[in-house]
Design a protein that fits this description.
Blueprint (H helix, E strand, L loop, with lengths): L3 E5 L10 H4 L19 E6 L5 E5 L5 E4 L2 H12 L5 E5 L13 H21 L1
Parallel strand pairs: 1-5, 2-5
Antiparallel strand pairs: 2-3, 3-4
Length: 125
C-alpha cells in the first residue's frame, strides 16, 4: 500500500485566541496545493466525539464511519482507486458531515452511544 500520511495541526492566529473560539471546530478543507498536489485525492482520517473512526474525502465527495482505523484507511484507498491518496490525520476530533458510506452498524452504534452518554449525564446530576 502506497499512501502519503500527513499530521494536520490546526493553529489559530494570535489574534484569535479567546476561549470560545479555541474549542470551536473548523471545517475540514483540502490540503494546500503546496503540500499535496490538487490532483492527488486526500482523505481525512480521525476520530469523532464518540471515539469512532471517520474517513472523509477532503472535498466532501465521500465519507464513512468505522470501528477500526485500518477500515477507515482501506475505505479511503478503495474510494481513490486506481490512484493512491494522501491521508491526513487531524489532531482534533471531527464529525462526518457527508452521507455515511462506511459501516452502517457503526453509525447505529454511534447514535446509541450518544443517547447513552446523555442519559448517564442526566443520571449523574
Amino acid at each position: 500500500m502506497a499512501a502519503i500520511a500527513l499530521q494536520a495541526v490546526h493553529r489559530l492566529p494570535e489574534s484569535r485566541t479567546t476561549a470560545p473560539e479555541i474549542g470551536a471546530t473548523s471545517a475540514l478543507e483540502p490540503p494546500d496545493p503546496d503540500v499535496v498536489s490538487a490532483a492527488i485525492p486526500a482523505f481525512f482520517i480521525g476520530r469523532n466525539r464518540s471515539g469512532l473512526w471517520v474517513a472523509r474525502e477532503a472535498k466532501g465527495r465521500a465519507g464513512g464511519l468505522f470501528l477500526f482505523k485500518s477500515s477507515a484507511i482501506d475505505f479511503a484507498n478503495r474510494q481513490s482507486a486506481p490512484v493512491r491518496c494522501a491521508l491526513v490525520f487531524p489532531a482534533k476530533t471531527f464529525e462526518l458531515d457527508v452521507t455515511n458510506e462506511g459501516n452502517p452498524l457503526v453509525a447505529l452504534a454511534a447514535r446509541w452511544l450518544d443517547r447513552l452518554k446523555r442519559r448517564l449525564t442526566r443520571l449523574a446530576r
